[in-house]
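re: the backbone from monday

yeah here it is again, tokenized this time
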């Protein structure tokens, strides 16, 4: 049943679109079951807890491992938003120089030949979710516990006007939090 169920899932991606091509993408990733995991909104300002701080740091670190630029981002109590600009993926896998030693870091989140396409938006998000899940679960002493919902939402940004509008939405997200009716029904506190 598990195998068949997996193949019947509807993809959220645009059919036939090459998500390895350079461009700007608006990405939203939700926590598992909408749990308020990353902090809280007080006085229209996001107050990150240690999990939220980790989620934010990891967003910025993506730029060190992948040929991308994070244009804007926000960590909210139960989700993150970011504008990710995918640059020329022909640069290859990322690596870093750390403490005088060269450490190869795979930019591909899936080692399977039929898995996520190397250098794609999906590989970047898969890597982000995997790394943050592992680190948050280490901090909580809850190995294997789900942190993120299965998929993510993306929107291909087509022009500067749209980029500006989405950037403004991301920046204003903490201010408009209390007016969003969906947030009232969420689970307020994690374990």
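seq for it, each position gets an aa:
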């Amino acid at each position: 049943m598990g195998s068949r169920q997996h193949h019947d899932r509807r993809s959220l991606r645009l059919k036939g679109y090459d998500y390895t091509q350079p461009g700007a993408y608006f990405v939203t990733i939700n926590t598992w079951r909408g749990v308020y995991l990353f902090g809280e909104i007080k006085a229209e300002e996001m107050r990150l807890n240690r999990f939220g701080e980790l989620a934010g740091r990891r967003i910025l670190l993506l730029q060190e491992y992948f040929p991308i630029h994070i244009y804007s981002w926000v960590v909210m109590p139960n989700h993150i938003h970011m504008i990710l600009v995918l640059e020329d993926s022909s640069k290859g896998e990322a690596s870093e120089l750390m403490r005088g030693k060269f450490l190869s870091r795979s930019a591909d989140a899936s080692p399977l030949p039929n898995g996520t396409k190397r250098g794609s938006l999906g590989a970047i998000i898969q890597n982000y979710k995997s790394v943050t899940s592992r680190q948050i679960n280490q901090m909580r002493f809850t190995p294997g516990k789900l942190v993120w919902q299965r998929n993510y939402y993306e929107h291909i940004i087509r022009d500067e006007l749209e980029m500006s509008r989405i950037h403004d939405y991301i920046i204003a997200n903490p201010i408009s939090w209390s007016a969003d009716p969906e947030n009232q029904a969420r689970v307020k506190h994690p374990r």
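Confidence is low (pLDDT under 50) at residues 1-11, 91-112. The CA atoms of residues 109 and 124 lie 7 Å apart.
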